[in-house]
Amino acid sequence: xxxxxxxxxxxxxxxxxxxxxxxxxxxxxxxxxxxxxxxxxxxxxxxxxxxxxxxxxxxxxxxxxxxxxxxxxxxxxxxxxxxxxxxxxxxxxxxxxxxxxxxxxxxxxxxxxxxxxxxxxxxxxxxxxxxxxxxxxxxxxxxxxxxxxxxxxxxxxxxxxxxxxxxxxxxxxxxxxxxxxxxxxxxxxxxxxxxxxxxxxxxxxxxxxxxxxxxxxxxxxxxxxxxxxxxxxxxxxxxxxxxxxxxxxxxxxxxxxxxxxxxxxxxxxxxxxxxxxxxxxxxxxxxxxxxxxxxxxxxxxxxxxxxxxxxxxxxxxxxxxxxxxxxxxxxxxxxxxxxxxxxxxxxxxxxxxxxxxxxxxxxxxxxxxx
Length: 370
Fold this sequence. Notes:
globular
């Protein structure tokens, strides 16, 4: 069924690997895929102002509906006209449903068939979210893309537990679609199935039965070995509709981007760029490095000579290292700008390689050094 608010154009597909380049049309602008989405959990990408974020050329960002439900509250954000006006961000936004918190806060919640009772980590206050409440929260927030409320199985887990989480995810998905009424907001189903191929196949069949705008692969990057992660993505992605965007949730190292694109993924998100920056770590075309290392004490070069970010255009590694050692906030800001721009530029370069029929060459050139 055609959707007047959303559409996806598949411009190019690498015949050898399945890497894809496209354009995802949304109410707040076009997204060139494959794309990396910076994460602004609390309606702000950590350490970055709107100006910083725009300079990284971010096309879409992610926020977390669970955390915004807790503070400042979805009803308050709705009063301000939704997330776009609240943040003064006029480009696309995606919100996670809170389903990941079912997994990450497992020690603080109680799952039933109807929903999940959460204990707020900081205050101990109890809250309740189910598929209908999650849809209400996300429709109040008003992002372009809302995620279905799901249950993510941990690694490792038994086959029996994986089946229970997957089947509950499918039942909750039906309730999400019944509760979701905003035509100007896309609802993405999430494929689960833990670490079992037959369950991934079954889940992909179920979620694909919904005529959604796009589809997500969830339940990876939860502690499993990289080889297993790459296998699950390679197995699952082709099972999802070819003419819709495919979103791999919570994955975002340069290698993960390359491996995911190679397997037919279009959208990625991760907190790593700013989290790593706060610990002094930064991405380069020669691998990840740490500004705290003494080797950079007198280094006059930028963080990466191929990077066009504000930090690399204006400051040396020696200067940023000095700021970091002195506890200056600007060090974390500069590293956050760099890491975010690095991943966005990197995946843009990946996209160009697909459009120019040289993805395999690009992959082989970078996979062992990035």
